[in-house]
Amino acid sequence: MATLTTDDGVKLYYEDTGAGTPIVFVHEFAGDHRSWEPQVRHFSRRYRCITYCARGYLPSEVPEGIERYSQERWREDLRSVLDALDLPAAHVVGLSMGAFATLHFGMRYCARGAPPRALSLTVAGCGTGAHPAAYAQAQADSRALAASIRGKGMAHLAATYGHGPARVQFRNKDPRGFAEAIAQLAEHSAEGSANTLLGYQARRPSLYDLTDAIAAIDVPVLVATGDEDEACLEPSLLLKRTIPKAALAVFPRSGHAINLEEPVMFNRLLDDFFHQVERGPWPARDPAAACPSIYGPGGRPPFTAP
Fold first, then answer.
1. Mean per-residue pLDDT for 103-126?
2. Secondary structure of the chain in the HEC alphabet?
3. What is the average pLDDT score of the chain?
4. Which residues pair with 12 in a beta bridge?
5. How far apart (Å, rounded) are the C-alpha atoms in residues 140 and 138?
6. How far is CA 163 from the centre of its chain?
7. pTM, whole model, 2 decimals?
């Protein structure tokens, strides 16, 4: 079993498949390294695909205490993966919780003025709880969910949270795939999942307070969301309007776990994105394309090029 050690001493399980330009996949709260199987099977024919389990997700180590879990730690664990595998840079693809980690990695390691650690960033299903109108409630929900996990276990979480309003789309389209994902969720460590909710999800900052740092990201970014993933629609628009080199893709009649729900569409989109990035250049948005009259929530000024 392949493991690497983070800079604070936590062992992370990883899988390394294929050869070529590296892609690092970063999983969501309800998933683990197995959640990327449709992508690994597709992209490992031409790319080197790395998946890993976040801290708190077996067979990675499950540290005790919520202070070992934070937005900063998720960001630095992603860096530790690249460092341990001697990857100066890679395409980084994250979903949901993994998309937050990917975005924060971009803010820290792909800002203007420094050699970027990513060839590109894919930020999919990002933004749950980020909007100011939802922020306080989302943090309270994370604390309540952690208490439920500790009291009722992972099987109950899988049977409730796993069937939420942005996941029923997956269930309705692909019952077998959905059942597999739910079974995998039920196998997760209760302690690790509760610590993740309390230490990471209930304490992460709102994206709407980080727009200056987000705007400094200077690599190609693909933002993707399902059109029925209500919690992520507005934040996805924020990211598109804030990151100079961002593109936005909205999956029709789709929920949260779009890489599993619509794997063919997701893989085709990534294929095209990687191809365009690798052939270069991927320019920043033309300032003339901004439309201040419809600029989104939060009242930020119109987009301006750096």
1. 96
2. CCEEECCCCCEEEEEEECCCCEEEEECCCCCCHHHHHHHHHHHCCCCEEEEECCCCCCCCCCCCCHHHCCHHHHHHHHHHHHHHCCCCCEEEEEECHHHHHHHHHHHHHCECCCCCCEEEEEEECCCCCCCCCCHHHHHHHHHHHHHHHHHHCHHHHHHHHHHCCCCHHHHHHCHHHHHHHHHHHHCCCHHHHHHHHHHHHCCCCCHHHCHHHHHCECCCEEEEEECCCHHHHHHHHHHHHHCCCEEEEEECCCCCCHHHHCHHHHHHHHHHHHHHHHHCCCCCCCHHHCCHHHCCCCCCCCCCCC
3. 94
4. 4
5. 5
6. 20
7. 0.95
16: its two tokens? 């390394």
Class (C level, CATH) for 3-133+207-294: alpha beta
What are the residue ranges spanned by the domains of the chain?
3-133+207-294
